[in-house]
Amino acid sequence: MCEDFSCPERSVSLSVYVILYVAAAAVALLTVCGNLLVIISVSHFKQLHTPANILILSLAASDFLTGVFVMPFHLSWLIESCWISGPVMCSVFNFVSFQATSVSVHTVALIAVDRFLALSFPFLYSDKISPTVICITTLFNWLFSFLYNFTLLYINGNFVDSVCLGVCVYNIDGISSIIDLLIVFLMPCTLIIILYTHVFVIAKKHATAIRALQVHNSTESSKNKISDKSERKAAMLLGILVFVFLLCLLPYYITSLVIPYSTANLYHVRSVATIFFFLNSTINPIIYALFYPWFQKSLKLIFTLKAFNKDSSLMNVM
C-alpha cells in the first residue's frame, strides 16, 4: 500500500542545482568513456587476449553498465530527492544495480583465483588456463548472476508495476537478504582476502629468491627471472585494483546492514557509501591508465587513430 508521497521542492539555488547535475553528468561520462576504452583495448588488440585481461574486460563491462544505467539515475535521484523516472526504469535500475554488483564482486574473486594459480602453480596455469577457459568462466559468471538476480528480485515481487510515485525501492525479505549477503559479499570477499594474502606471501618469496640469484646465471635462468618478475608485477598491480575495490565495497555493505535498522537521519550516510561504491567503476580505468603500460599504449593508438589501420589488432602494445 503506497503512502502519500510528494517530491520535496528544491531547496538549493539554481546555480548549485546546475553544478550538481554537471558534476553528476561528468562522473557518469568519465565512467562510461573510461571503461569503454578498456573494453575496446582488450577486445581489439590480440596481444591483450590473456586470461588476466579477459577478466579485466569483464570487470570493465560491468563498470560500463554501472556508468550507463545506474549512476545517472542514482545521482539524479539524490539531487532531486525523488524518483522521477517511473516504475519501469525503477525495475531496470534495481536489476542492473544488482547484476553489475554481483558480476563485479565475482569477477574480482576470479581475478584473485587467477593470480593465485599463476603464482602457485605456474606450469599447471600455463597448460590448463587458456583464454578460452577464462571466456567460458566469465560467460558462466554473467549468466549465473543474471539468473540469480532475476530470481531474487522476482520472488520478492520487484517486477510488479506497483512502485509508489516518487519512490524507487526494492523488496528483499530476511531470508533472501541473508542468502544475498553470503553469495555476493561474504563468500567472494573472504575468498579474495585469503587468496591475495597467499599471493603476496608467494610474491615476497619469489622476490627473495630472485635477489639471491647471481649475476652469472645462465640465459635460461634470466628468462625465468623475467617471467617471475612479470607475474609478481601483475599480482601487485591487480592487488591495487582489489584493494581499491574492497575499500569502496565495505562501507556500502556495512551501511546496508546497519542503516535499515537505524534512525532515518542516517539515510544520507548510506547514500554516500553507495556513491563511493559506484565511484569504484570510475576509478578502475584510472588505475589502468596510471599503472598498466599496455593500456597507456592502447590509448595512444586509439587517440591517434592508428587502431583503425589495417592489421592494427596485431600491433605490439605490451
Automatic annotation (TrEMBL):
Where does this one sit in the cell?
Cell membrane
An example GO biological process term is:
G protein-coupled receptor signaling pathway
Q: Which gene encodes it?
A: taar14l
Listed under GO cellular component are: plasma membrane
UniProt cross-references to Gene3D superfamilies, sorted A to Z = Rhodopsin 7-helix transmembrane proteins
Keywords linked to the UniProt accession? Cell membrane, Disulfide bond, G-protein coupled receptor, Glycoprotein, Membrane, Receptor, Transducer, Transmembrane, Transmembrane helix
* Bilayer disposition of the protein: Multi-pass membrane protein
**Ranges annotated as spanning the membrane:** 18-42, 54-79, 91-113, 133-155, 175-203, 234-254, 274-295
Where do the G-protein coupled receptors family 1 profile domain residues begin and end? 34-288
Q: This chain belongs to which protein, by name?
A: Trace amine-associated receptor 14l
- Read off the Pfam families from this record: 7tm_1
Which family does this protein fall into?
Belongs to the G-protein coupled receptor 1 family.
State one molecular function term (GO): trace-amine receptor activity
Q: What is its main location?
A: membrane
